[in-house]
């Protein structure tokens, strides 16, 4: 009954949380995390029925190259792109590369599971709300959306940004404290401040919000 799945995302916390939720719903999850560069090789070697492939930047050139390679070498694998709210061009690029669907990082588990079942059945899997948003943007090209990732990044101090990146990597309070050379109590305070500023109630929600808005990529670019 369950589907043989892979969840492949650069952010280990997101990948493992989604994999765990899918396992609880009776699916067989083969792997949970991998860097973007190795995603195609991992999927090709394991050959699941459906792969959830994470991306933080669906509009970037070449971002769907792993999808192209997977479909070329394992055409029977249905690939669902897991990413932030995309532009119409992002959705089109995912399908052009051979993806079976597009699922938002913060989609409820029921929605993710519906997309998985559609993809396995050979159907296109895109939430109606995503399509409506895409068509709305196509019909209103002059309306520029707010850059939510940049806005959120400006709310955080450099130290809080580092804490958020570590949270997204799955580090607990003690590991964060050791990595930053601060006391665990201080690290805990930083985490609480990040959650408060982002308006979320948990570390997982913070990581999902950061991934959906591209905040983590912006943090990496500004820090490096």
Automatic annotation (TrEMBL):
User: Which parts of the sequence belong to the Response regulatory domain?
Assistant: 4-120
**What PROSITE patterns does the annotation carry?**
HTH_LUXR_2, RESPONSE_REGULATORY
Q: Which InterPro entries match?
A: CheY-like_superfamily (IPR011006), Sig_transdc_resp-reg_C-effctor (IPR016032), Sig_transdc_resp-reg_receiver (IPR001789), Tscrpt_reg_LuxR_C (IPR000792)
Q: Which SMART domains match?
A: HTH_LUXR
Task: Quote any Pfam family the record assigns.
Answer: GerE
Q: What positions does the domain HTH luxR-type occupy? A: 149-214
Keywords, A to Z, come to:
DNA-binding, Transcription, Transcription regulation
Q: Which domain of life is it from?
A: Bacteria
Q: Does the keyword DNA-binding apply?
A: yes
| Protein's UniProt name | LuxR C-terminal-related transcriptional regulator
